[in-house]
Amino acid sequence: MTDGTELDAEAAEKLKKLWVDVHIEDHEMCIRLQEGRKSQVAQTGGVLSPHWERSVRNFQEQVVSALSE
Q: Which phi and psi angles does 43 have, rounded to 5°?
């Protein structure tokens, strides 16, 4: 979003490229995470690291809480 700021064509193109580049990075990471989740090493579900995956654990706890209401 541009918060109402008018962009000229060059600025709009640069912003579009930035958004696409960030999306591609995110998309590639999601694919790699899913490949890891379906590997033999992760067949038992694995364990979320309390240090590195705190936000993932918090999100999962919110989902469980919402579904159990």
A: -60, -30
